[in-house]
Design a protein that fits this description.
Layout lengths: L1 H12 L4 H9 L9 H25 L2 H4 L4 H10 L16 H37 L1
Length: about 130
């Protein structure tokens, strides 16, 4: 009975839904059971982390100008701040599809040029080897 009251109090101390956090935690194959205290602490830590990320992004982004926090602010923080760089793959900078296609074409052209340079160097090596061996 005391546990039920305690979990009700815990629910009010965190704003993230504990049931969803439990589902996420149980999705790991190493986890078989989850202690209520561990669940609560994970929820609270996650909440504090998200709050810190949002505050940092807002203070260091362009959001202050518009009085809003944008995805661009978050992605910029993930890219620029060493503390948040582990999020860079999760929060990539948005680019237009046309810019992305141009980048792909450029990479493809650069790759082809490098391959041609490598083949040219191999031909030169063979020619040098032939003249040395003669």
């Amino acid at each position: 009975m005391a546990t039920a009251r305690l979990s009700g109090t815990e629910n009010r101390l965190v704003s993230l839904p504990l049931s969803r956090i439990r589902v996420i935690m149980k999705s790991s194959p190493e986890v078989s059971s989850i202690n209520q205290d561990a669940l609560f602490l994970t929820a609270k830590a996650t909440e504090l982390f998200v709050q810190y990320l949002a505050t940092y992004s807002y203070k260091h982004g362009r959001g202050k100008e518009k009085n809003a926090l944008t995805y661009t602010d978050l992605s910029h923080t993930a890219e620029e701040c060493e503390t948040f760089q582990f999020l860079a793959d999760i929060l990539p900078k948005k680019i237009l599809a046309s810019k992305y296609l141009k980048m792909l074409e450029k990479e493809k052209r650069d790759g082809e040029v490098r391959e041609e340079d490598d083949e040219g160097e191999e031909d030169e090596d063979e020619a040098v080897g032939d003249s040395v061996g003669s």
